Amino acid sequence: MPEQARDHTPDRAPEGTGAPARMRDDEARDDGAGGAPTAPPAVRVEGLWKRFGEQIAVAGIDLALPAGRFIGLVGPNGAGKTTTLSMVTGLLRPDGGRVTVAGHDVWRDPVEVKARIGVLPEGLRLFDRLSGRELLGYTGRLRGLPGAEVDKRATQLLDVLDLAGAQHKLVIDYSTGMRKKIGLAAALLHNPEVLFLDEPFEGVDPVSAQTIRSVLERYTDSGATVVFSSHVMELVESLCDWVAVMVAGRIRAQGTLAEVRSDAPSLQDAFLELVGARGLDRSESLDWLGGAR
Ligand SMILES: Nc1ncnc2c1ncn2[C@@H]1O[C@H](COP(=O)(O)OP(=O)(O)OP(=O)(O)O)[C@@H](O)[C@H]1O
């Protein structure tokens, strides 16, 4: 694996709540070789920390997520993906570190950031006594869009996401997949620059997954950025062109799909190697399972 793909999060824990006091500006930087300046990342994370009691959920991570990419944040259960996305989107206050989205500091400049992002969080809570259409109408008005524009966009999104037939049904009566889709519609309504999705395909049938996929591909083709978390390597490999691998609160690798995959036959193999689970078969201890009764 090329060196630039592997990340080297510092091993030391910072003092107190734990934020290393590193700061960088968000301007486009020269590449150091006299070439064209590199575009600033869509999302920059510096020394981000979160601790829950004794548990360090996110251990001082650095990330630079490039704009206009389909980005996968992958990691085993409990790696810290949801905690990271929650801090990056302003839903959870970090113990330390800094996050900028489109050059704006998430915690110092939340209004600027929230106008530019869409979020489909884990355990999505929606105003579920509204119908799907009412939810989009309400969300659009909260976003400050004119009523006619909200109506137009809502109609199109409901149609594309195959929710037109259920638009007057209360969201509480939606299935899991329908809730994901109406949540996605609400997150896209204001045409954000960066869309954050926590496990967007969980509980979604293959037809709906394909629909969501084409909506997201169209969205990134227009220059927007999607950041999504998943455990499903095949999905990440087929959708993403840029990947960050998180293990036990640290970033183990980040880079293009090819850089992170390197010589491994698949992202799944590269992932197993990175998390130290290659060739590991914990099921061997279950020697009673399926044996003679
Ligand atoms: N509110 C909380 N209180 C205490 N511990 C928490 C809390 N939220 C997360 N954690 C712990 O932080 C660690 C990271 O959790 P997180 O949900 O971010 O992982 P994840 O990578 O999203 O996992 P999964 O893929 O299973 O959803 C875990 O050890 C988890 O138990």
TrEMBL record:
Residues 1-41 are annotated as: Disordered. Keywords: Antibiotic resistance, ATP-binding, Nucleotide-binding, Transport. It comes from the Bacteria. Residues 43-273 form the ABC transporter domain. Residues 1-14, 22-32 have a biased composition (Basic and acidic residues). It is a peripheral membrane protein. It is found in: Cell membrane. PROSITE patterns: ABC_TRANSPORTER_2. InterPro entries: AAA+_ATPase (IPR003593), ABC_transporter-like_ATP-bd (IPR003439), ABC_transporter_ATP-binding (IPR050763), P-loop_NTPase (IPR027417). Pfam families: ABC_tran. PANTHER family: ABC TRANSPORTER ATP-BINDING PROTEIN, DOXORUBICIN RESISTANCE ATP-BINDING PROTEIN DRRA. This is ABC transporter ATP-binding protein.
